[in-house]
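ok posting inputs for the S-adenosyl-L-homocysteine job
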Amino acid sequence: MIKSVLNNNSFSKQDIKELLLSDKSDTALLFEKSFNQKKTHKGNKVYLRGLIELSNICSKNCYYCGIRRDNKRVSRYTISDKEVIEAARFAYNYNFGSVVIQSGEVQNEQNSKKIENLIKEIKKLSDGKLGITLSCGEQSEDTCKRWFDAGAHRYLLRIETSNHSLYKKLHPNDDMHSWEKRVKSIESLKKVGYLTGTGVMIGLPYQTIDDLADDLLFMKKKDIDMCGMGPYVEHFDTPLFNEKNSLLPVNRRFELSLKMIAILRLIKKDINIASTTALETIRETGRIDAISVGANIIMPNITPVSYQKKYRLYENKPLVNKGIEKLLLKFDKQLNPLGEEIAYGEWGDVR
Ligand code: SAH
Ligand code: SF4
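and the output
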């Protein structure tokens, strides 16, 4: 049964639901095919993006996120320019192809200017060689353009869920948290010229298999270049924590996340798919498991540890404090049996 679905050239919503609901040997067939597609279209390489968690200051109040504006227990920080440059230089010295600058959402001139300057400095210190991805929330087209002109060339903005009414349940019902605006922002990033990525959380309260199938069809329709998606992991200090008893068990959320990655690889064969940190929160081997079903990007956290502790979107976030050499060695060891290797010094973009 699943074999005939897997042989289809293009998946209907029904096909996707069948794949999401597959079990045991059927799931194994899905994963085998998606990993083969990854190898065919992306080679046996895994690209590194060093993650810099620039600031946990956020003007938004998403119900699921630990650093939402109204969480008064968060001690807020913004990394100094000097420390960001140091982290980027570190990534460059370790021959990472790219860095990702991620932060809470702040829309003001001071922030726009700071990030614009940082982008220019990172480009300068690396002779233009470090690729820069941004993940700093919704911004005006003008700001996005300034950052693009400064040298950033990828932008990640998750839609969180393609279901408009589910989105409303996960966010305050105001102008600042509008699903329509978020979609427009994704479109505007493409217009500015960014390689544009989106993604969703998997295993959210009230989320159905239909929603997840629609999420994949949304990504297909938007013709995205990249995707970062992973399990929803609850945070006790957020309003959505009240729904914790209605959640799927973490192992189910984990498995669904792998299936989402695998199916996306079959739908969008040559895009970059990140193996996200939230996967590692649930299972220690999570990030490698995602590679083995079709992801091809790993984002080691290179934020100074004292800040990493304060950037908690969800609970049990793993901290990287053992040194990057050890981490890279571990990845190498885990990737080897899969016939995969880290592509040092390469961007690995679609175009
Ligand atoms: N502020 C920016 C970027 C940082 S948040 C933005 O929101 O786009 C990056 C991502 O973290 C969000 O898109 C969301 O999908 C994810 N996230 C937030 N809280 C989470 C949680 N509790 N579990 C899993 N992912 C979460
Ligand atoms: Fe802010 Fe992003 Fe968290 Fe929403 S998900 S509260 S925008 S950091």
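notes: Strands lie at 45-55, 98-103, 131-135, 154-156, 195-198, 201-202, 226-231, 272-275, 297-298, 341-343. The longest helix spans residues 24-42.
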